[in-house]
Structure formats: structure tokens, C-alpha cells
Amino acid sequence: MRSHIQKTIDEVTSFMEEKKRELIIAEETVALLKKLFPSEEEKPVSTVSDSPKKRKRKKNTVNRGKSKYKGVTKRGRKWSAQFYENKKLEHLGTFDSEELAAAAYAERAGNKNEAQRLREIALNGGNNTEQKTKKRSLIKAWQCRHCKLTFKDKPVSCPGCRSASFDEVTETEF
Fold first, then answer.
1. Is residue 67 located within the same domain as residue 118?
2. What is the distance between the alpha carbons of residues 113 and 109, in angstroms, rounded to a whole number?
3. Residue 163 has what DSSP assignment?
């Protein structure tokens, strides 16, 4: 009977040693997993941020540069008009004068009256014809069929819309 008890004790001891080895392996696995995936409390505190710096988002506005008009920038000796719509930039063209570029922007924005006024300012060398107070007399003039700009002499093409269609009209002096 003693040998039977001794045999049972040996089996239990062997079983317990095997379970201890399995427990040690499990504890080592848990320690390794904690190292690889630390919880919020166990994360080391670092002075340098691990996440990349967030960039400031650009506003969807056109840089005015040195221009006094919205959507107009200077490019070398010419003026460029740009229009943003639905977060997309639309290049409207390059122009010889700041006012013509502003007129293109105003027309694209849907402001026809402002576009007409700016074209007239550009074609009169920056002088507004409404502010002149000298005596006016009727003369022959040429008017563009598309943008309705008026000229003293018949031009080859309209600088406002680049059309070549003109009508002869009787107009007051410039």
C-alpha cells in the first residue's frame, strides 16, 4: 500500500511541477504582452510628443498680395485673377491691369455691374469718367456688343472680353 501512496504522491508532484512550468510560461507571456501593449496607466511619460504635430489648415481664401481687390494677385508685371468655389481654385487669367483682373473676378462672382465699372476704370487709365465735370458734347464712338464698353476709336479687339464685334453709337465725350 505504501508503494501505491508513494506512486500517487510522485504523480501529484510531477503534475504540480508541470503546472508551475506552465504558470511561469504564462506569466512571461503576460509580461511580454504588457511590454508590447502597455495600458494607459502603465505607459511611460515622455517629454517629447509621440504624435506628429498638427498643421494649421489653410483658409479657402485667395491671397490678395499687393492688390486692393479680392481674388487678384500680382505675377511679375501682370495681374492674375483667381476664384475659389467648392474648395477648388479656378484660374481666371492674367491681365495687364489690376482693374481688369478684378473685373474678371467680379464677373465670375456674378457681380456684372461691378465688373463693368472696373473695366471702365481700367480702360480710362484708372480715372473714373463719372467724376469728370467738364462740358460734354456728342461724338461718335464704338461699343463692344458683348460687354458694352465704349471706345473713342474702333479697337481691333475689346480688352475687356477680347471680342471683335463693335457697334457705332452716338455717345457723350469721354
1. yes
2. 11
3. -
